[in-house]
Amino acid sequence: MGNHTMNKQECMEKYDVLLRLFAQIQEDQSNFYEALETLEKMPHGTPGDIAGQAKAMAIGDALKAREHTNQELIRVYQNMYYDLRTVLFATDSIEGV
User: Fold this and answer.
1) Rounded to two decimals, what is the model's pTM?
2) Mean pLDDT by 10 residues, the chain (97 residues)
């Protein structure tokens, strides 16, 4: 693969595509809500019921996984910003960036 330096327009196009893809990931919560609905349909047990405990654990795990995804998205957004800011947002009037 040869060296290819992208111009500002190419960077903007790729940046826009990445932002759209990340927005889709961020907004697509259908699987998450389907899992919660399935868990909600499980019969409720009595206190100390193992099924109820498993249901609570599954809901907690689903929430943790979704939060982890959001944290990773934030990390990627930060990296993208720092990598591309000098190309995408460079102006003569901004100092110290």
Assistant:
1) 0.54
2) 66 80 76 74 71 80 84 84 75 47
